[in-house]
Amino acid sequence: MSASQLDTVAKNQATRRYVRFEHDGVTSYGLWEGDIVRHLVGDIFGDARPSGQTSPSREVQFLVPCEPSKVLAVGLNYASHREHVEGSEGVILNAAGRPVPSDYPGVFAKFPTSLIPHEQDIVFPNDATNVHFEGEMALIVGRDAKDVAVEEATDYVFGVTICNDLVDREWLLEDLQWFRAKGADGFGPIGPAIVTGLDYGNLTLETRVNGEVRQSCSTNELVFSPDQILSYCSRYVTLRPGDVIFTGTPGQTQSIAKGDVIEVEIEGIGILRNAVAG
Predict the structure, then answer these.
(1) Which candidate, 138, 139, 149, 109, places its Cα nearest to that of 234?
(2) Distance between CA atoms of 217 and 160, rounded to whole angstroms?
(3) Full-prediction pTM beyond 0.85?
(4) Under 8 Å between Cβ of 107 and 260
(5) Nearest-angstrom CA–CA distance, 183 and 211
(6) pLDDT per residue as tens digits for the range 216-249
(7) pLDDT, tens digit, for every residue of 18-42?
(8) Dihedral angle over CA of 200, 203, 205, 211, nearest 10
């Protein structure tokens, strides 16, 4: 066996796909292996163990893959996205027209109730008029984290998953806070699985709308790395197991409409797919 083949085998052995799902009215965590979900007993951030039961993946309903106490997100964290909001003299401006700091990430909060799972329809609030997709990678915190050094941040990352940080651009400009622009119910599709053992600093990401590629990049293009983001957030809030951090979206976002199907695919994780309810 060649060295590259050995590396692939080692990577696959270290990689696990954790899901949270419902089957026969019971909610559980599980390990998703091919076409099978192996049921787990207990909490994946603690004492989870196999129950011995398995189910075909087509027969389970995937849920939001964890139950966070908080959901944080980073804005303008790809140079390719910053290009579309650049003001005069090369100054990067945020949605409110204020300069974006260059020495720390711009973090905002969403709500756990904004999260919806893979394959669940996105339902716009009745007065939403300009909702955009934002395909992203999300970090899932694995243990209590407070004042974590950047060099130690990877020890606090349980795994990564896929997310879509939906936003109504009009509300983003109009409101004092991003309460509804970013935090509305359904504005955080996430999943389907939390994957451990990946090099999350170097994964390809692609967003498609109705099959057409709209975003394509690598997570190595992030302005602030995942480890820098976790370290920064932990200075100000205590992160708990299962907390979620959206890391930012690349390129240019566009509005979506009823009937559109948005797919975000990340190497090694899979595809997050959600349709906009008609």
Answers:
(1) 149
(2) 17
(3) yes
(4) no
(5) 27
(6) 999 999 999 999 999 999 999 999 999 999 999 9
(7) 999 999 999 999 999 999 999 999 9
(8) -130
